[in-house]
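Researcher: Here's my situation. A collaborator sent me these components and asked whether they could plausibly form a single complex. I don't have experimental data yet, so a predicted model of the whole assembly would be a useful starting point for our discussion.
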Amino acid sequence: MAWPRRAGPALLLESRGQKKQDMDDNPLIRLTDVNFAYDRRPILTGINMVIPRGKVVAIMGLSGCGKTTTLRLIGGQLKPSSGKVEVDGQVVHELDSDGLYELRRRMGMLFQFGALFTDMSVYDNIAFQMREHTDLPEELIHDMVMMKLHAVGLRGAARLMPSELSGGMARRVALARAIALDPMLIMYDEPFAGLDPISLSIVGELIRKLNDALGTSSIVVTHDVQESLKIVDYVYFVSAGKIVAEGTAEQIKHSTEPYVHQFVWGEPDGPVNFHYPTTRPYGEEMLSGPGRKQVWW
Amino acid sequence: MNRATIDLWVGVFVAIGLASLLFLALKVGNLAASSTGETYRLQAEFDNIGGLKVRAPVKSAGVVVGRVADIGFDAESYRAVVAMNIDSRYKFPRDTILTINTSGLLGEQYIGFEVGGDTEMFKDGAMVKKTQSAVVLEKLISQFMFNKAAEDNGGGEKK
Amino acid sequence: MVVNALRRILEALGHRVTKRIWRLGFAARFLFATLLHSGTALKRFHLTIREIYFTGVLSLIIILVSGLFVGMVLGLQGYDTLQRYGSTEALGILVALSLVRELGPVVSALLFASRAGSAITAEIGLMKATEQLSAMEMMAVNPIARVVAPRFWAGVISMPLLAALFSAMGIFGGYLVGVQLIGVDAGSFWSQMQASVDFREDIVNGVIKSFVFGVIVSWIAVFEGYDSDPTAEGVSGATTRTVVTSSLAILFADFILTAFMFRG
């Protein structure tokens, strides 16, 4: 299978020095035995993950299970406690800050609530990276910005400020900004959170279309099962910092794994416990009062 | 707000900021008065300089002709050594007497030049011989009191 | 029991002290990083100009009005005191020296901290809370270079100008009250002032003070913003801390600087 390389204005950017890629021997991203802990609280344990080129991969799980942490590890914003995070053949956590910034130029990220720069117009938000990283003339930047905005259907909103946008529009602008420099990888952190059903399917469709049109790879971190199963190629299920299941969208839908089943069908009870783990039995808690951890005054 | 408007306002801001600095320097301060022109140096020894400070004015006939540049102490003669920068436009005869005066009763102290009649002028770095020390107010008062007391006592005896 | 309580008090105290010291170290490292990444702010100077607009130009009104009133009050109070000694012509000296040496730099720095410093903290804090700084980092743009450094330099540049404006406005206010309203002789007002206000001793030292205050306020403001907890509560707490910490720091630094500058 030939991976479509990006074309158009992106060619004007400096050459990316990308290696020849083989099939799954050379995936875009490979996480090997990754552990991560905040202070001493483990967030991720023994994560093995492969993101092939040109695919849309979802990482699903409950809130706080370590999905966003995984994205931050890939983006190099966090360093794993142990294990190896490789992106395009480079070990992310061993790069110096220049190398990391070089790598990040080839990544796009959509943040949970868009994270648009509130002091800039929609236009300037999308032009931001072009202006920061290239010396392109303003006319060319204009054309590129309009292309990106056209792709998300918001060419008419170029002059608006982020505060004037609806949630769905803001998400689409953030999406246009994430693809501003035609990245090789787009990461979506909860792209569906808080959207109305129409915006939801628009964003879902855009993720799939942009991935195929730009020939990039995408990682979608989400807990919206129904919407994401429509668009993704492969799914990793994360629970309590471990990968508990993986498979194609079809396999996941028909999985008999209790956890996956509970998740996909949204059942309130199952292997996922309602209670946050505690060492004290409920009865003892009720009888013993606030305990000795209290402040002396 | 577009960039041109912002630039304009910032330009206005910086301009009036610098203008007020200039106002402080020229109108409020003495930058204009303290001409940075050519000067020559004179030195003088005093028995007592009182409250004279560095940068105090040097006046002749009430006109500022220079400033005190440095004040030191001669450990051998136990006298104060005062160095002055005098405006090169003004030359003074070699027998000029330097006195330390006070402007007003409680004002600042300055060095006054009482010009003599010599035809030779001071050269750069010259040492002034004829000086008169500062009048120390306390001394003056105690002297006055002492005299007054002596006078009163004398008067009493006469009676 | 008492020993235990005492130990806990000491522990709490020790914890607070170590936390402060740790934060101070972090703040120093942050200042160093800001200076190190100042290239962008100075090379692409329009970024800094934009921030000068928000910190300097928008503080103009409050600085000018406060300066005018402080000067007018000095005129009134100074006249009242000086006339007892029959030396009202020294009013110019009193107004000018107190403004140029102390009130100009200090009061304008305090106003600057509450007007611009708090705004900088809130802005950076909100950018952090809404993941804009994270987003910038993921776009391979260093937020310290792009967001922090321009704001820092804008504060450093604006502060001496604002202090000079404050002093000039205050002297004008003193002139209005003293000369125009009360009737002190205008000639002696200005000439006495000029005779006693020294350019290097008083005015340059005042400018140095305001520059130092500018560094202090800007540093505290950007640091508190950058270090704030990414929540609404965190940002509001950081904003308060900026105003309190920088006010105390200004007064403390003023004491130190005054002790160095005006000893003789």
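Model: Some features of this prediction you could bring to your collaborator: Chain C is about 85% helix and 0% strand. Chain C touches chain A at residues 4-5, 8, 123, 126-127, 130-132, 134-142, 146 (CB under 8 Å).
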